[in-house]
Amino acid sequence: MTRAEREQFDEDGYLVIRGALSPDEVEFYRNAIDRVHARHTPGESLHLLSAVRHCPDLAGLLDHPAVFGYVWSMMGWNTHVYHSHIDVHPRVKEEKPFWWHWHQDGGRQNREIETDPRPRLSVKLAYWFSDVSRPGRGNLTIVPGSHKTNWLPGPPRRGVEWPTPDGAQQVLVEPGDVLFFDRRIWHARSDNHSDVTRKVAFFGYTSRWIRIRDEIEDLPAQSWWENISPVQRQLLGNVGDGSGDHAWGHFPETTPLYGELAARGLLDSSIPALIP
Questions:
Q1: What SUPFAM superfamilies does this protein's entry cite (predicted)?
Q2: What is the strand order of the sheet 169-170 is part of?
Q3: Cα torsion at 234, 237, 239, 245 (round to 10°)?
Q4: Which of 179, 207, 235 is the last residue of a domain?
């Protein structure tokens, strides 16, 4: 990463790496994504987590030599992929009710970290396999420079009609281009109103220490596991029985400690970390 690139990344929160993949690479990876799409949701939209697990052919993107240097320049050598997904979005068939999609990546991180601005914590690569060089093709929409802003003016509820944030712009990229961005930049996927199916793979990188260090894989098989409380299981790394609980806190009502605090009236909405 050059000094100029680093300065631009620090200022804008993103870089576009043009032509990072060759035409042959674009075809190879696009065909791989097409096969996954055909298995899961043929003809419909797809947002599939664990990209390489579901599509091993994408493993070459984890450390692609054209762009991986940007990752370790920012995150250092002690990094790993903590979140990845394959996205395929054909033309929208009908207008859906308004929904405020603007967000920073990281989920609960943005409620539970108290500094202003919050720390970077992770970066992301987005590999594009379709032509979104024109607006209206499901482009990723971003607010340049917003990565150092903790809150974006928005509606009281996501379903309330609200103007697009000031300074928002659609990212215009061609097949083989890669977007490298700070997880904190405010962004949203726009609807695809074209005949070009949007195809992209995202890989998020963070420090390897953002995970449980203790051995947890075999805990549910231990003889004492059933004798401890759900909250104690949560604290030992359990993410529930598959009914909704998730380590990222997407489903508060199925998270044991949330339920206990709610029952005791201890969820103080004036404290961001305690807001559902």
A1: Clavaminate synthase-like (SSF51197)
A2: 169-170, 140-142, 187-189
A3: 50
A4: 207
